[in-house]
Amino acid sequence: MSDAGIVVGGRYRLLRRVGAGGMGVVHEAHDTVLDRKVAVKVFRSDHARHPEADMERFRREGMALARIRHPNVVGVYDTGMHEREPYLVTEFLDGVSLYQLVRMHGGLPAPVVRLIGAGMCAALAAAHQGGVLHRDVKPSNVAITTVGQVVLQDFGIARLIDQSAVTQANVRLGTPAFMAPESVRGLSPTPATDLYSLGLCLHLALTGEAPLGESDDIGPIIERAVTEGARPLRGRVVGDPELAELVDELCRLEPADRPQSAVEVLERLGPVPAGSPPALTELVRRCLRAEAVGYVRSLPDDEATSLDAPEYLDLWAQGDAAAAVEPAVVPVARTVPEEALSLSMATLQLVMSNMTPENAVSRQREAVNLVLRGELREAARLLTTLSQFCLGRLGPDHPTTLASQYWQAVCLARLGASGEALALFSRVSERAGPGRDEGEGTDVRG
Length: 446
Known about the structure:
GO molecular function: protein serine/threonine kinase activity
CATH topology of the largest domain: Transferase(Phosphotransferase), domain 1
Binding site for ATP: 41
Protein name: non-specific serine/threonine protein kinase
Number of domains: 3
Number of helices: 16
Largest sheet: 6 strands, antiparallel
CATH architecture of the largest domain: Orthogonal Bundle
Helix content: 40-55%
Strand content: 5-15%
Pfam families: Pkinase
Enzyme class: transferase
Shape: globular
């Protein structure tokens, strides 16, 4: 069932679910007070034994995270309680995760990996200096925005829930595929613990391979984490021997054998560059372009779609959500298979089930404003849904259908997918035909 429309904390209106996991659910939301987009993370309270004390500790931890102000750290805005479940409000990041970047491109160029590593290190250095450990550094917690900014998310999230209650069921906090050996053994984390997970992330980014090997079973992953560790990069062709050596040092099993501070690692990686690194932004742009093209491929030719909405499933959050444990096997390919690009029909059906011909034009204006503001990813998603709805309910020749397809083509063109954009423009032109009143129903800018 959709949570869209629910207001959390009297001001955060939930728009759509963008992730889910063992600790809770992440929503894109609208802050109705400050009129801005935010992320609202609602945590599960299944294990809470002392709700009042837990909420006070949650509030204190949220305040500690909010004090970390750094360009490479996600901004924390607010905390509170909604229906006996704690929630955290953070800035909403428009881009892709490191997980998604590697899933599409495979191993990344060494200079790009240095840029990503430097951004992560700068974030860890700021947090560690503030007395906060991340505790769950993994590729899906590393966001790369559309302007090439590397932002580390979910700082200290493991401390925002009752650790004793969670671990009593023999479930360790963190993601086994990226956990340090000492964390697997249940020992207290240190800055070196975060640095180990950083090393595994960089290992994945360089090779495109799961650092602790591929297995559908968590057991072998945990065993490798405490006995063998990641396969050494020294001697492997990665184009940057010094970087390979640094990653190997970060991945050492004993904390004392690793670099001891994020500042030290940052110095060896090089400074975080100012502005938008072209190589990194281009990789992100390719991901967004492929995603938008996938939206087009998901549209049937003028066929109606059933509006029976099943349980919510957001294909684009797979890298960040799925389950309490992120899969150890990272599906990597040089190009993402076409089926992985298609917009989830469940997502389309859910959104369309709440849409009517009367509000379609209103949603279309919203989508056009997104295009004009340059928020092309969200615009492409919304316009795909609108086009699908209008084809089924209004027909292929209706002005609202044609306008939706036109603006979807504009999105594609601005993302650089010129072939797909041209095909959609041609479809609109053929359907509109000579003599049609071009102004009728197609001026969606109000």
